Amino acid sequence: MQHTLAALPYDMDSLEPFLTQQTLFYHHEKHHAGYINKLNALITGTEYEEMSLEYIITQSDGAIFNNAAQTFNHNFYWNCLSPVATTPSDALLRKITEVFGSMEKFKEAFLNAALTNFGSGWTWLVLDQHEHLKILNTSNAQTPIAHNEIPLLTCDVWEHAYYLDYKNERAKYLDGFWEHINWENASKVFADKEHLNTIGLYAIVNNDPDDSMSDYLDELQRAEEISS
């Protein structure tokens, strides 16, 4: 199975002035594509060649894990951004308010976590194995699906995500990120998990095609195939 680079879910200039076309081009066509190309080269002729991307992440380590995880993280990140303003569903907003006190307090906590995430990495809103909502920082290629946690939202804080537009001013990038969150995507994943009897990513780890999160990830895979 060859993994392919899916087209962005919006035009490359549609996030301006938050992220310029130049930034999206280098981030998507160079960095993201580079992870996919390296992954395909690494898995050719190995046991991982016929595995789904998500299953590779749960079964691998080293360079294969790093490139598979970065492929997934970027796939997910692009779908966390929207050119138009969106709002969370009532169910997700209630959950955020229950856990963090208010949307404004969640915003403060999430952006602070992203600002203080040292070095290269990702800041996530996830559901853990007990379906508790939490903010999570990961370093380098680490990803919550490797630890049976379900991502609802992520912010890429690797410098290549924003340096062309913001130089070293990560805080300004984060302010723009907040205004372009795709809450419809986060709400969709949250709603899917609300209707499951299982907890966490059990079904994905076991390649269960009936899992709703697996259905969402299948949509990403189909997008890859259409764009190739």
UniProtKB/TrEMBL annotation:
Gene3D superfamilies registered for this protein in UniProt: Fe,Mn superoxide dismutase (SOD) domain, Iron/manganese superoxide dismutase, C-terminal domain
EC number, as in UniProt: 1.15.1.1
Catalysed reaction, written as an equation: 2 superoxide + 2 H(+) = H2O2 + O2
Keywords from the UniProt entry: Iron, Metal-binding, Oxidoreductase
UniProt cross-references to Pfam families, sorted A to Z: Sod_Fe_C, Sod_Fe_N
Binding site for Mn(2+): H27, H74, D156, H160
Signal sequence, start to end: none
Domain Manganese/iron superoxide dismutase N-terminal: 2-82
Superkingdom, natural source: Bacteria
GO MF terms, alphabetically ordered: metal ion binding; superoxide dismutase activity
InterPro entries in UniProt: Mn/Fe_SOD (IPR001189), Mn/Fe_SOD_BS (IPR019833), Mn/Fe_SOD_C (IPR019832), Mn/Fe_SOD_N (IPR019831), Mn/Fe_SOD_N_sf (IPR036324), SOD_C_sf (IPR036314)
Ranges where the Manganese/iron superoxide dismutase C-terminal domain occurs: 89-188
Family, similarity comment: Belongs to the iron/manganese superoxide dismutase family.
Self-association state and partner proteins as the record states: Homodimer.
Function in brief: Destroys radicals which are normally produced within the cells and which are toxic to biological systems.
Protein name as annotated: Superoxide dismutase
Organism of provenance: Sulfurimonas autotrophica (strain ATCC BAA-671 / DSM 16294 / JCM 11897 / OK10)
